[in-house]
Design brief:
Elements lengths: L9 E10 L7 E10 L9 E4 L9 H6 L10 E5 L2 E6 L3 E2 L4 E4 L6 E5 L11 E4 L4 E11 L5 E8 L4 E11 L4 E8 L3 E12 L4 E8 L2 E5 L2 E6 L5 E7 L2 E5 L1 E6 L4 E8 L3 E5 L2 E5 L3 E7 L5 E5 L2 E11 L7 E5 L2 E8 L2 E3 L2 E2 L14
């Protein structure tokens, strides 16, 4: 907290236009405010990273310098504009330490991190409890081992990622943008995930055991994978997906926009899902009786099946309302106020009404 004796506080305002990477050409305006005490020195618990004149010129070293953060002594690491290549070193976040860049495409953290097994060692950034990651781009590239990812989060309390682009480019056998494992809460706000080129399975977001919510114009694009591709997949998890665009394309085997299995609960609202150019394309796909999905006010397009709800012993609860579907419907989902893209209304069994 700022001391009351500091009656005059100087505030530096950085005003800039943040550009997404090539897959998103939408410009955004961000205002970052860094308070400074009247003596010209940074306030306590704010650590700066910059190409010059910062406390550090490497975000990893800035994090390593903090050893006393807790719920009553939180920190902020502010990263100035620039490309910060951390090589094969991971950015290991810490509890109660927020990291804020200067905007997507303006502050870029780049590295080549991968591992022979899925886990914390396979990601460029490792999340932490009670922390936030904001206003920057994570670029994970050319990992040499079997597993490569952008952000890995496991067994932590509430974590937030806001105004962040995550790009994963490589030829690993298993690639992911965000992998969340454990029982906690993950909140994604205006997060753009791009995963491409993997030689095995690819996931935009894999939610394994989390309570997760996405929203505020987030997007997921997964493309050009050799094995199965998934936009957002949930396993033993609860996923609330809203105001999100999901696109999966160009894979050589099965492709899934929104996928759920084993005690997963998925809510898709005010979103768009497009799956095409794969061997078999599915928009919303629930695999077993313990998985359920509710789709509302959304558009789902897939060349094989816009919605797949398993039947028989694996029959599950899948409901679609106030939505538009392009592509066949498989299984026994329930529809209300839902139409094909041609304008034909679907009955309660999601078939064209007579």
């Amino acid at each position: 907290m700022v001391n009351s004796s500091h009656q005059w506080i100087k505030v530096f305002v950085l005003l800039f236009f943040g550009l997404f990477l090539g897959h998103n050409a939408v410009a955004q305006v961000r205002v970052i405010v860094v308070p400074i005490g009247e003596d010209g020195k940074p306030l306590a618990n704010i650590v700066t990273v910059a190409k010059s004149n910062g406390d550090f010129d490497n975000p990893v070293e800035a994090l390593e310098s903090i050893d006393d953060a807790d719920d009553v002594n939180p920190y902020l690491i502010f990263i100035a504009p620039g490309l910060y290549d951390i090589g094969s070193t991971q950015l290991q976040m810490k509890p109660y330490v927020d990291i804020s860049g200067s905007g997507e495409g303006i502050t870029v953290i780049q590295g080549a991190v991968s591992d022979t097994a899925i886990g914390a060692n396979s990601a460029l950034v490792v999340g932490a409890s009670s922390s936030k990651l904001r206003e920057l781009t994570i670029y994970s590239r050319n990992g040499l081992s079997a597993f490569q990812g952008g952000i890995y989060i496991e067994d932590v309390a509430r974590t937030e990622v806001e105004n962040v682009s995550i790009d994963v480019l490589g030829t690993a056998a298993f690639q992911y943008g965000i992998y969340a494992a454990g029982l906690t809460n993950l909140r994604l706000i205006n997060v753009d995930v791009y995963v491409t080129g993997g030689q095995g399975e690819q996931y935009g977001i894999l939610n394994n055991g989390f309570t997760m919510e996405t929203g505020s114009h987030s997007s997921v694009l997964v493309t050009r994978g050799v094995a199965n591709q998934y936009g957002i997949a949930s396993v033993r998890a609860s996923s609330d997906i809203s105001e999100t665009s999901v696109e999966v394309s160009g894979g050589t085997t099965n492709q899934y926009g929104v996928f759920g299995r084993v005690d997963s609960k998925t809510n898709l609202t005010d979103s768009v899902v497009v799956v095409n150019d794969g061997a078999d394309d599915f928009g919303v796909y629930m695999t077993d009786s313990s998985s359920s999905a509710r789709v509302s006010n959304s558009e789902v397009t897939a060349s094989n099946s816009s919605v797949f709800a398993s039947t028989g012993a694996n029959e599950n609860e899948t409901y679609i309302s106030d939505s538009i579907l392009t592509g066949g419907v498989m299984g026994d989902p329930v529809c209300s106020f839902t139409f094909q893209s041609s304008g034909v209304e679907l009955d309660d069994s999601c078939q064209p009404a007579p």
